[in-house]
Design a protein that fits this description.
The protein is of the alpha/beta class. The chain has three domains: about 30-130 and about 235-280, D-Maltodextrin-Binding Protein, domain 2, CATH 3.40.190.10; about 135-225, Periplasmic binding protein-like II (D-Maltodextrin-Binding Protein, domain 2, 3-Layer(aba) Sandwich); about 285-490, MetI-like (MetI-like fold), CATH 1.10.3720.10. The chain has 19 helices and 14 strands. A five-stranded mixed sheet has the order 4-1-5-14-6, sandwiched between helices. Helix 7 links the parallel strand 9 (about 160) and strand 10.
Length: about 500
């Protein structure tokens, strides 16, 4: 047993050392003496911007001509920058937590997400000049107006903030004995506040005002935080050392500031879109969002089931093989995949392998979910084969059947019948687990749910719709699987 364990660890170590991490430094740390950041963008003719469209009025989504589009102050600024550079603007949406990783791994050229240029962030990325200065407020339930007056009112209380933001760290440092809960999306924070999971939300002033203006149950107080210039400002992030690109962008920002376009045009335009979103907040009005989400969820699940089953079958036979190398590789793979979270695997495929090969988010999601499913399917198939009595194999061989024919016509048919319910459970679980791909910006059902929450300022209704859609899909699949299970029993 000890020898087998050592073999598994050795195989895993070999696989890890084969991963080409050599370009990590090159991808994320251009030197100023050889900075081609601006030249590369002008050569390809596209400026790729990373953002998290759940932070009105900075960036959010609205429906135009039946299509979901990104709008907001940051989007308007980015369009002007791309115009000044003479290139097209491409926007990649993902969770806020993933934005700087995407920047450092070359998935995006710049990040605009109402990001504060804190000293800690400046160590790993290059920032533009500050383009907007707001402030930090606290959103509370209106019924609590008499209880909370400023940040000092939240001592020994629980506040929420977006994970990975300056607001999260600021609340921890400046409010004594406070418990800070992190959430990925602004809509999740509002829902947590209204369901009394938290007592307040530390949020940048423009976004806080947007939520309060569109939700009569909320109120806003000045947190009176001790803020440096960086902590109350927003800037654009670039890969470390992208000085030529930052300089060119700073010229655009200077022009925008001189004409006061943010106050005169961009914020007003964002406000008009926010009003449009709240005219009709019924879930039926957003049916296209949910339809798109369920479509991507089914697409990811279908491909992952197909490739996962093929990979699982191969791994199962490798683990049952008498070949020690095949057995060791299969065992190492299965144990490693089952021992690491799917979310980490998705991020590794998209960001890690993306250092060498630029894989689109949807493709990365399908690959990661397929690789994960294959490990579990392998164990189900192996267990099914081992469940067949050895006497069946011996009888078939005594009748003159070859080893392959015995497996194909005697063992496998019985094994599949035994493992069918377990395989069905794995496929149903895969549909639900595939929702994790939303962290890299794949517009599956969960991603669309978050967008609808952000656009409508409604927390519970979109969740209910998503739950019902997942139930319809999984219940339908379970009925189909039960039908085929009955056919197998009848055939027997």
């Amino acid at each position: 047993m000890k020898k087998k364990f050592i073999e598994i660890i050795a195989i895993i170590g070999l696989l890890v050392t084969m991963i080409p991490f050599g370009n990590v430094h090159a991808a994320g740390a251009n030197t100023s003496s050889n900075d081609q950041s601006l030249a590369k963008i002008q050569k390809k003719g596209v400026l790729v911007m990373g953002t998290s469209p759940d932070y009105a009025p900075y960036e959010f989504q609205t429906t135009k001509n039946g299509k979901s589009v990104d709008v907001g102050m940051d989007i308007s600024i980015a369009k002007q920058i791309a115009k000044d550079l003479g290139v097209k603007l491409e926007i990649k949406n993902m969770d806020f937590d993933s934005l700087l990783v995407a920047l450092q791994t070359g998935k995006v050229d710049m990040v605009m997400a109402g990001m504060n240029p804190t000293p800690a962030r400046r160590k790993s990325v290059t920032f533009s000049n500050i383009y907007y200065q707001g402030g930090q407020d606290i959103v509370i339930n209106k019924k609590d107006n008499k209880i909370y007056k400023n940040k000092d009112s939240f001592v020994n209380k629980t506040v929420g903030a977006q994970t990975g933001t300056m607001q999260y760290n600021m609340a921890k440092k400046q409010i004594p004995n406070v418990k800070v809960k992190g959430f990925d999306k602004g809509a999740d924070l509002i829902l947590a506040l209204q369901t009394n999971k938290i007592d307040g939300i530390v949020m940048e002033k423009p976004s806080a005002e947007a939520y309060v203006k569109n939700n009569s149950q909320l109120s806003l107080i000045n947190g009176n935080f001790n803020l440096s210039k960086d902590e109350s400002s927003s800037a654009i992030a670039f890969q470390k050392g992208s000085n030529t690109l930052a300089a060119a962008v700073n010229k655009s920002l200077a022009k925008i500031k001189k004409k006061d376009l943010i106050n005169k045009e961009y914020l007003k335009d964002a406000g008009s879109h926010m009003k449009t979103n709240t005219v009709d907040t019924s879930m039926w009005h957003y049916w296209k969002y949910f339809a798109k989400g369920i479509g991507y969820t089914l697409l990811i699940s279908a491909f992952s089931v197909f490739f996962g089953f093929i990979l699982g079958t191969i791994l199962a036979f490798m683990r049952l093989s008498r070949n020690k190398l095949f057995k060791a590789v299969s065992t190492a793979y299965i144990e490693f995949i089952r021992g690491t979270p799917l979310m980490v695997q998705i991020m590794f495929v998209y960001f890690g392998i993306g250092l060498v090969v630029n894989i689109p988010a949807l493709t990365s999601g399908i690959i990661a979910v397929s690789l994960n499913s294959g490990a579990y399917v392998a164990e189900v198939i192996r267990g099914g084969i081992n469940s067949i009595d050895k006497g069946q194999t011996e009888a078939a061989r005594s009748l003159g059947l070859s080893k392959n024919y015995t497996m194909r016509y005697v063992v496998l048919p019985q094994a599949i019948k035994n493992i069918w319910p377990a395989l069905g459970n794995e496929f149903i679980s895969l549909i639900k687990e595939s929702s994790i791909v939303s962290i890299i910006g794949v517009t599956d059902l969960i991603y669309q749910l978050k967008i609808v929450q952000s656009d409508t300022y409604r927390g519970v209704a979109p969740i209910v719709v998503a739950m019902l859609l997942y139930f319809v899909v999984t219940f339908s699949l379970s009925k189909v699987l039960s039908y085929f299970e009955g056919r197998m029993k009848h055939a027997n």
